[in-house]
Design brief:
By secondary structure, this protein is an alpha+beta fold. Helix content is 24%, strand content 32%.
Length: 425
C-alpha cells in the first residue's frame, strides 16, 4: 500500500515552523514574559506564582530519573556534534510529552522500546500517560508553566478514534480538522496556535507539511518565573566572557551577593538558583580551569548534595534560539522501531519520518523565560550556627557553562543547555 505523507508536530516551548514572512499572527496575544525592560506585569506577576503541589510516587520518581538520564545522553550527543562556540539547548519535558503522545499511535513492540528508553523497563503506557497528566496539572498550577497539546487531521481522512481519545483524555489535546492541500493556510493556522500558546515566543516553526500531510499533533511548552533572589538592574556591568576558542566578548554581567546552594566536583562547580516559591531551580555547572563544557558533561550530577554558601555571583544576561532534527540521534540512542514501522494505532498508511525540536532561552535580572517546539511526523538548606562565617565564594560565570531548569519535587528536567557564546546565535 502506498504510504501516505503525514506530519505530527509537537511544540514544546519554542520556535520554528516553516512559516514565512507571509505569516500573519492576526490578533496577537499579550507580549512575552521577559522584555528588554523587564517582566511585563500583566503577563506574569511575582505574587501569581503558586507552590508546586506534586507528590510523585517512587515509580514516578523513577520515570523522571530515567527521563533525565536519557535527556543527558541526547544532550551530550548534540553538544559533541555542535559547531564550535555554538550554544545548545533542548527541552526534555517537551520531547517526553511529544514521545508520550506518539507512543499511543505505535504497535506494542515499538511502544515498549520507546518507553524503555524514556521511562524504564516494564513501564506501561497507561502508567506513563497517567504520570504526564498528573505532572501537567501540577506544573501548570504554579502559573510558571504552560503546556498545550493539539491534533489537526486532514478533513475526511480516517484516524483511529482510540488514538484521538487517549490524547484528549491524558494530554488534554484540542482536536480539529484542516485541509492540508491548502498548505500555507494550514501552516498559518498551526503557527497561530503556537504563537497563542507560547505568549508570542513562537512565530516560526520548522514544520515541513505539504499537500500529502494527513495529521499534525503539537505540544507547546512555556516556562517563565522570577528569581527568588532578584538581581538589581543597576548592578549590571559590562564585563568579559571568554569563549572556548579564547575569543573575548563584552557582555552585560549581572551581580549579586547572597546565599545559594553550591557544590564542588573534580571538574566543575555547581550552583543552584531558585525561582519564586522554590518550585523550580536553574542549575549552572561551571567548568574548572583546564576543562571544557564537553569535558564535564559525562560527570555532571544534577542531583548531587548541595549546601548553602554565601556566594558573590556574576552571571551574564543571555538569550538564544536553537533548532535540531532529532530522528537520527534518537535512533542512535536505541529508539528505532518507532521510526521503522507503520503507525498502526493512528493509521497503518502512516510512517514517522522526522522529530524536530526548536528552543528559545532568555535570562535577565528578573528571571527566565524559555519555550520549545518538538515536532514529529512523516513526509514521505541550613545557614549554620554561630561559628565564624567563611568568606563568600566567588562564582564568576565568565566562560562557557552548562545549565538546567528542573522542578524541585520530581526533579524532572524542563530544559538543559550549554552556553558557549553570549551573543545571540
Amino acid at each position: 500500500m502506498k504510504k501516505t505523507l503525514f506530519t505530527l508536530s509537537l511544540l514544546a516551548a519554542l520556535m520554528f515552523c516553516g512559516c514565512n514572512d507571509a505569516f500573519d499572527p492576526g490578533n496577537p496575544p499579550e507580549e512575552p514574559l521577559i522584555r528588554p525592560g523587564g517582566i511585563v506585569d500583566r503577563i506574569f506577576k511575582r505574587e501569581d506564582s503558586k507552590p508546586l503541589m506534586l507528590t510523585p510516587s517512587e515509580e514516578e520518581k523513577a520515570y523522571a530519573q530515567m527521563g533525565a538520564d536519557f535527556a543527558q545522553k541526547l544532550f551530550g550527543k548534540l553538544c559533541l556534534e555542535a559547531e564550535p562556540n555554538k550554544n545548545v539547548c533542548i527541552s526534555p519535558l517537551s520531547l517526553e510529552i511529544a514521545l508520550g503522545m506518539l507512543a499511543n499511535g505505535v504497535d506494542d513492540e515499538a511502544c515498549a522500546e520507546l518507553l524503555d528508553s524514556i521511562a524504564g523497563k516494564g513501564v506501561t503506557l497507561d502508567a506513563l500517560n497517567a504520570w504526564y497528566h498528573k505532572l501537567r496539572d501540577a506544573l501548570e498550577s504554579t502559573n510558571n508553566v504552560c503546556l498545550a497539546n493539539a491534533i489537526w487531521t486532514q478533513k475526511g481522512y480516517p484516524i483511529n478514534a482510540d488514538f484521538i481519545n487517549v490524547n484528549k483524555t491524558y494530554y488534554d489535546a484540542e482536536v480539529s480538522s484542516l485541509d492540508f492541500k491548502k498548505t500555507q493556510k494550514a501552516r498559518n493556522t498551526i503557527c497561530q496556535w503556537a504563537y497563542d500558546h507560547t505568549y508570542g515566543n513562537l512565530r516560526e516553526l520548522n514544520l515541513p507539511i505539504n499537500a500529502g500531510t494527513r495529521i499534525v499533533a503539537a505540544n507547546a511548552t512555556w516556562f517563565g518565573a522570577e528569581w527568588a533572589i532578584p538581581f538589581k538592574a543597576d548592578s549590571t556591568r559590562k564585563d568579559t566572557f571568554v569563549l572556548s576558542s579564547g575569543e573575548e566578548q563584552t557582555v552585560d554581567m549581572m551581580q549579586n551577593k547572597s546565599y545559594y546552594h553550591y557544590a564542588e566536583a573534580s571538574s566543575y562547580r555547581l550552583l543552584s538558583m531558585d525561582f519564586v516559591y522554590q518550585n523550580f531551580s536553574l542549575l549552572i555547572a561551571l567548568p574548572l580551569e583546564g576543562f571544557s563544557t564537553n569535558d564535564i558533561l559525562p560527570a555532571i550530577d544534577w542531583n548531587q548534595q548541595l549546601s548553602s554558601k554565601e556566594i558573590i555571583l556574576h552571571l551574564p544576561k543571555f538569550q538564544f534560539k536553537t533548532s535540531y532534527e532529532l530522528l537520527t540521534p534518537l535512533q542512535e540512542l536505541g529508539i528505532r522501531k518507532v521510526m521503522q514501522r507503520p503507525l498502526v494505532n493512528i493509521n497503518p498508511e502512516l510512517i514517522l519520518h522526522f522529530i524536530n525540536q526548536d528552543v528559545s532561552v532568555r535570562i535577565d535580572e528578573n528571571g527566565a523565560e524559555m519555550a520549545a517546539v518538538t515536532e514529529w511526523g512523516n513526509l514521505r538548606t541550613s545557614l549554620g550556627d554561630n561559628t565564624p562565617r567563611p568568606e563568600p565564594i566567588n562564582f564568576f560565570v565568565d566562560h562557557p557553562f552548562v545549565f538546567a531548569v528542573r522542578d524541585n519535587k520530581s526533579h524532572n528536567i524542563l530544559f538543559i543547555g550549554k552556553v558557549e557564546s553570549i551573543e545571540e546565535n
